[in-house]
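Title: [Solved] Protein argonaute 3D structure

Original question kept below for reference.
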Amino acid sequence: MAIKATVYRWRNWGDDPRPKVLWERFKNQLLTVHQHDYQVVEGPLRALAVCAGKQVHNGWCHFPTIKAHFMRHDRKVYVEMSLRGCFCLDNQTVKSIASSDLPDNLQGWVRSVSGNSIADHVEAVRDFVTRCNLAGLELEEANLKSGIARPVFATGAGDITTDELSALTALGSPWRAAVPKALVVHTCDPDRAHRFLGNLRDTQRQIFGSSLFIDGISVAGFQKESFQNDCLHILLVPGLSDFVKDVSWQRLLYRLERSRVIFKVVRASNALDRFVVRNLLFDLYVKAGGIPWIAKFNDQRLVCALDAGHSADLGLSRWVGCRYSKKDQRQRIYFQDCGLAEQVPEAIAAKLLVKLTSENSLVLRDGRMHKSDTQFSSRAGLDVIAINKRPTAVIYEEDNGRVAVASTGAYLEYPDGAVLLQSAVGSSSKDYIRPIHLSSRTVSLSSEVISDLQALVELPSLSSMHPIRLPLPVYWADLASKLNSSDWVRVLGNGWKLEGLVPALRES
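Solution (posted by the thread starter after getting help):
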């Protein structure tokens, strides 16, 4: 079985390697032959809409599109491609509009036409490449070196590999058991809360048997005196989007986080869903100090993740760092807000450098924070690995012409040493999870380094059912950096004292 990616070498690319020039030549040459088959998507997105796939609904239309990204190495040009979706108004030029910006009454249609399996990606790209070659573009499949990262994890029952890793099974024999704590469920709807508690008790017995980590359950309102530091707390709220915008709720979150109360916010409408309850128990177990498994790293260096969030509406940028110790399995998050800034300000970089790093730390940065390479590597002599969360290419496995999702940990190495890593796999063929792109100017991305990064991805996080695809410190930094969504709520309730993330504080 071969590991492949939708990456092609462009043999006759010309003599000007600038991506903008390459894109102009690429699309113009294609459209001279296939002008009725594709439309250029307006804007910065380098993509072509497939006319034959157009679907119209209530004055809106959806096009399957082929997105292209150009890379140059050693006088060779490579083109990454994949299948995307594009929503726009009908009978207008094709200009992509975010699906979340479409009217609420169209969201059902949006979901029905969205989502592509790995087979959809490969079939669409191969058809596109065939048409490109008919137009004289001379594309050929790139020959990339492949491998599979298989980190080893330690549990209470011994060592296991990625293939054997099961979140719920690991809770039966964890590396470190959770400290039993009482659980308080806070709600304005006691009837729903009692039904939820019955579901919670049954699920806990199924997973843990007689070794229960929740030592007593009670129901309470949201009065200040009902929150205790030696208990676990669940906040059953009406709706998460309205909840995080309400100033009174924000003040409650601020007070709890400042007091280091351990809590979890749960949407009341999801409280009876068995999958939600399983995820909730897993999260509570970790919040109670349990460690289901640990990774056996090749390199014990401290890991520091950097990310940033920006909001033009608020005029703010948030710079976040997450420090993760492989020795004691602990993480700390630091952040600082400032006026809107495209690159990390020098003063903030200096503060993060002091708080996050130690001698010989490994820095994982968001792929857009280019300036941090010089600020962290040249000033402090640290190794920096850039992680692009949204690469264009996709990875797949092929056996006798049959295309399948690549295994967790499968990777391909580009000629310049960068790596495309399939860090997580969805639960079904339609639930395709994109790979991540790794690159570094300071450290060689050897199989040992890739294995350690894959191990960081597979450490216990917020969910047992939905795998994350980012190394854990990057995942936490990414959530904490969000300024225009409710993701910051998911970082709270761990005793990390991050009350500054709550908007009510920012606006007061």
